[in-house]
Automatic annotation (TrEMBL):
Keywords: Dioxygenase, Oxidoreductase. This is Aromatic ring-hydroxylating dioxygenase subunit alpha. One of its GO terms (molecular function) is dioxygenase activity. Pfam families: LigXa_C. Residues 109-356 form the LigXa-like C-terminal domain. It comes from Maritimibacter dapengensis. CDD domains: RHO_alpha_C_DMO-like. InterPro entries: LigXa_C.
Amino acid sequence: MISAQLNERITRIGPDTPAGAVLRQYWQPAALTDELEHGTRVPVNLLGERLVLVQDDGPLHLATRIASADEAPTHYPASEEIEIDPTGPTYPAEQRAGAVFAYLGAGTPPPFPNFDCFRAPDSHVFAFKGLWECNWLQALEIGIDPAHASFLHRFLEDDDPADGYGKQFRDKAGSTEIPMTKLLRDYPRPEINVDETDYGLKITALRHMEDGRTHVRVTNQIFPEAICIPMSREMTITQWHVPVDDETCYWFTIFTSFDKPVNKDLMREQRLKEHRLPDYAPLKNRENDYHYDPEEQASLTYTGMGLDINVHDQWAVEGMGAIQDRTQEHLGRSDVAIIRYRRMLRRAMDAMEQNDRDTLPMQDDGAARIVGPLSNDAIGDTRDWAEASHLADLDRRAGCPWDASV
């Protein structure tokens, strides 16, 4: 557990807050490229600021917009009539991998790291987003808990992976005969190792099997508020948990394919069945009990809330309240990545208060040399699980039609 004062310090993200200062040192997803089609001025609410994405007078950028104090924190339709506040700050913006990234910090923006999602061609990436009504930190922390998938995303039946394109855990673990859904059910208590890296944290979950083999699942925390996780053998997910304000956030996901071009029409169709436009709010939400169905819970999924794992996560993090009360929590062994991340965040906040930005991850020219990160599922001999994971990653990259070399 932590104090109420510390909980405030690590969650609040306004312009004059310690955590907000850290987040502003990084490029943040502000909108989907698709949204640029709706007008030359697209409203964006980001890090507690009311902004507008402007593409009508030179380079793409964010400007401060005139907004009422009581407006809803989420998106509303774009319009050329949106009024810009000439006294407010402006921020640079860049299009990358189907999303528009913005830098809200002072000084020169850091370089983009050479992550797979940024160096894959447009044909092999797809971006989407979704609204969650909770603080960004609890949204991130569920993504760096490898044990939660065995419970929250427990499927009581195993689908044919051939029918699972664009859906997480609809694959065979490590290209073996074992469906991921079965492996997560059968081995719910992984051994978890966490290593600090140049980009954040490498999180390795080991599920030791009775036959002398180990399933190795490598996921990553990309500082300050992103994750990179395997979706399937073919695809990874890089997901940012971007604060709209203190009590609302968007997850922005870039799906990256190492094999065939992404079927963008199918993936967009799948996700629009679960979200509304223009604000990308989920159709299953607190007001309709996330479409909970007790009959489904008895036979199909642990939550009884359908097969979309985003809904399971949404229910879990929104159920903690707008800002999770961490003064009563009791972290355990499986929360090691959460503990390590909070230490990184606190170090970064302390550094910013001492005007020591250079000690933050990925702030210098070396960021462009960071590749990957490794993010996959593999199965190998328990005595040599690390090598099995590494070789599985290299094998996938070797067959990639774009330069995914590491």
